[in-house]
Every structure is written in C-alpha cells, then in structure tokens.
Amino acid sequence: MITKKTKRLQAADKAHLWHPFTQMKEWTAQSPESQLIIERGKGNYLYDTEGRRYLDGVSSLWTTVHGHGNKTIDRAIKDQIDRISHTTLLGLGSVPSIELAEKLVEITPRGLKKVFYSDSGSTAVEIALKIAYQYWIETGVKGRTRFISFTGAYHGDTLGSMSVGEIGSFVKKYNPLIKKHFRAPYPYCYRCPVASDVGHPGCKLACLNEFERIVEKNHKDIAACIIEPMVQGAAGMIVSPPGFLKGVRRIAKKYNILLIADEVAVGFGRTGKLFACEDESVSPDILCLAKGITGGYLPLAATLTTDKIYKAFLGNYEELKAFFHGHTYTGNPLGAAAAIANIDLFKKNKVIDKLQQKVKTLKALLKPLSKLDHVGDIRQKGLMVGIELVACKESKAPYPASLRLGHNICMDARKKGLIIRPLGDVIVLMPPLSITERELKKMVSVVEDSIRDRTE
Questions:
Q1: Residue 303: left if φ>0, alpha if ψ -120 to 50, beta else—which one?
Q2: Which long-range contacts link 313-320 to residues 24+ away (Cβ below 8 Å)?
Q3: Structural domain includes residue 218
Q4: Which of 242, 239, 288, 240 is nearest to 265 (CA)?
Q5: 79 in helix, strand or coil?
Q6: What is the CATH classification number for the domain harbouring 248?
Q7: Strand arrangement of the beta sheet that strand 384-389 belongs to
Q8: 369 in the same domain as 294
Q9: φ, ψ for residue 73 (rounded to 5)?
Q10: What are the tens digits of pLDDT across the range 250-264?
Q11: How many percent of the chain have pLDDT more than 90?
C-alpha cells in the first residue's frame, strides 16, 4: 500500500511539475508503485517516501562523488550559511569563490590560470565557446566564427552548446535556431564510422586522420575544437582508444585552433584520474567543469582558461574588450564552499588512489556479462560504464526502439533496489566514487539479472 503522504506528493507532481527529458504524457500515466519520490539520501543510497532503499547507480545524474549526506560537505555548506549565502561577483569579490579558484588552478591541467564561474555544464560550455570566439576578434584574427566537434557529442542544452552537440533527438527540433559547425567522426570503435572493415587497432586511428583532413581544409574558419576527453557520456559511454585525445591536441596546435575540453561529466575522478585529460597528459586551452565540482551537492560550474587567452580581453574601458557574460549566482558562496570541501576530501581520503582497486573489481565483475547473448559491447573507463544491448550479436543489429529495452531493464533493476538510467539500449553505470566493492557486486548482479530477465 502506498501511504497518503506519497499519494499526495505524486498527485501534486503530476499536476504541476514538468520533468526534464521526459514525455509527460507517459509520466502522468505511471502507476503509483512505479513513480518514486526521493526523500533523503545516506552514503551511496537513496530513500523514497515509502522508506525503500535504492543503491544510487548513476550518482544522481553523474554528480555525487563522496556519497549523500557527507558530513564534511554538509558542514562546509552550513558554516557558509552562517556567514553569507550569496553575494554578487559583479564589482565585488567573495572569500569562497577566491579560495576555490586557487584550488582549481592548482589541481587542473597545467597552464590553466583563470576561472570564470557559472551554474551548469551547459553554461560552462556556452562561456567557453564565447571566450574562444571573442579571443580571435580581440587578437585581430578575422573569420574564425565556427567550431569543430565530434559525432555523437553532447555538450549541453543552451543554443550555443547544442550547436556543437550531435544527438538528433536532443537538437533536431531546434535546428533552425542553431548555427552549423563542423563535425569529425568520434572513435566509436564498436560501430566504427570510418574503417569498420578493419577495426581498432588495425585502423591506426583513421578517425584522427579524418579529423585532421577537416581541420586542414577549414582551420581559418575554426575558432576552437571541443571534445569530451576520453569518454563521450550521453552518446552511450563511448571510450576513445589510446592516443586519440593526444592526437586531437596535436592537430589543434598544428593548425592554431583552440582546444576546449568538456570535462563536465568526466571530471573529478570519474575516469580513474582526477581529470580525464591527465590520461594522455593533455592540457587544453579551455576547460569546462560542473557536475562533480561540488561533490553533487549544489549547482556550480567553472570555465578555466590560460593567461594568454585572458590577456586578449584586457584593455581600456572604452575599447569594450571585456567579456560581456555573467550569471546572477556566479561564484555563489555556498556552491564554492561545497566545492572546496569536495576537493579537500579527494586529498584527505586519497580518493584517486583508492579508486584504482574499485576500477579493477568492476572490470572483473563486468567480464561475465559479455557472454550474455544480447550484450554487444561493454565499455568502461574508471567507474563509467556503458553496456550496449543488441538484438543480434553477430550483426550488431539494435533492438527496435519501440521495445524500450533499456528503459524496461532499468525499471526492473529499480524493483531490485538499484536506480540506473539508460541511454537508449545502453545501460549506464556511474556510481559515486565512494561505492564499496560489496556494493559494486550488488550493482552488477542486479544489472545482470535484469538483462537476463528481459532478453532470455
């Protein structure tokens, strides 16, 4: 039986809330038993209004790092509330925003010296695009008004960030509003877009050659290249092969275009490194951070760049060279305080060091799933996992979208105490870095059982 409290909240939700990336006709038709309302969290678990416990298998949309209710982060936020909850950065400074900027410059890839705050991954990318575009104007270079990104990319939902993304269902309806940019093939090795008859590593990164061909032909029009380093998240956890990111960095330098690294999803330990760019010793010109920056506690984002880029915006007032961009809650003290505590926890608890054994354990746990008849590919980088389901293993033929296989498997997993979300028929696992090995075993076991129940 569902309690009166839950029924009241469910009714109010259906009456007034418009959920993101959700077909609301379907949402409002859900049964009371399947519409969860989360009331609290503890550690790596979420609890609904009925008191049922669920392992948080996607870090509350890829944000939670150290678990829910972490006392260090909670205390940092509460202490900051006692001082001040918000003050503008327009014409003023604030203590937490300054201290966080110092820490970000210290821990991010070499050469990034300046920090511009916002409040989401989309806005972090939007800022990066505008900085890159204006940089060339301020340095007297004409014509660099376009960007190059990659097939399958997702960089956010604002108009600028959508323009460099390529997930049809997300952007198709808005195409008339979006400026067209260049696209290069991303190395989706399971479904190779360039050399499918050879495959990796025999292809010798043919996709990188195609990227250079496009850049060589159009570099005088290109302000920057934007990439999700090492893993394309929303595309289905597509892990790039060794050398691809480094190759993109090399080509960008060769043709004098800026490199924007969108680490909104992959930053703060998700790939096994503090930042994904570290995996191939790449230092971008601009870096976008969000999601895990506060440990998943408050909305905050940061766009970092080099002194060279920053100095192009310096001039006299009447020259109007300033970066005309800002957000009401830019550098919000509560978010900054949470982010400082989050970063301190990485060092204090040796999170990255301890993560390495969890990554190995997860890899071993996932290996038996590859033998399932309808698991076509398992992609893992750190604690980021994509399990791609196919109707036919030999041909790699996908299931009909109408079956909603990925969705149904995730709903089955929910009944077994695990909350995960699919990307089409790719089952995504991205638990908090604080997950234990016992909890990893539970997560994978539930996923395996749920896949079997729906495909055998």
A1: beta
A2: 313/134, 313/135, 313/138, 315/138
A3: yes
A4: 288
A5: helix
A6: 3.40.640.10
A7: 375-381, 384-389, 426-429, 422-423
A8: no
A9: -70, -40
A10: 999 999 999 999 999
A11: 93
Same domain, 385 and 270: no
- The answer on 291 and 173 residing in a single domain is yes
Q: What is the C-alpha radius of gyration for the chain, rounded to an integer number of angstroms?
A: 22
| Residue 250 domain-assigned (yes or no) | yes
Same domain, 303 and 163: yes
Q: Are strands 384-389 and 375-381 parallel, antiparallel or unpaired?
A: antiparallel
Structural domain tally of the chain?
2
| Residues 298 and 316 placed together within one structural domain of the fold | yes
Write out pLDDT tens, residues 151-205: 999 999 999 999 999 877 778 889 889 999 999 999 999 998 887 677 788 788 9
* Among candidate residues 288, 321, 348, the one where a domain is terminated: 348
The closest alpha carbon to 159, from 144, 145, 143, 180, belongs to: 180
* CB neighbour list of residue 384: distance below 8 Å, 6 or more residues apart: 231, 233, 237, 239, 265, 266, 270, 271, 429, 430
Sheet with 146-150, side-by-side order of all strands: 112-118, 301-306, 286-289, 258-262, 222-227, 146-150, 182-184
Q: Are residues 106 and 251 in the same domain?
A: yes
Q: What is the predicted pLDDT for the residue at 62?
A: 98
User: Looking at the structure, do residues 319 and 290 belong to the same domain, yes or no?
Assistant: yes
Q: Would you say residue 26 lies in a domain?
A: no
Report the distance separating Cα 417 and Cα 379, nearest Å. Answer: 23
The verdict on residue 3 lying in a domain is no
The pLDDT of 214-234, averaged and rounded, is 98
Give the number of other Cβ atoms within 10 Å of residue 228's Cβ. 27
State which residues form the domain around 114.
72-348
pLDDT tens per residue across span 402-411: 999 999 999 9
Other beta carbons within 10 Å of 196: 13
**What number is the average pLDDT over the span 7-15?**
96
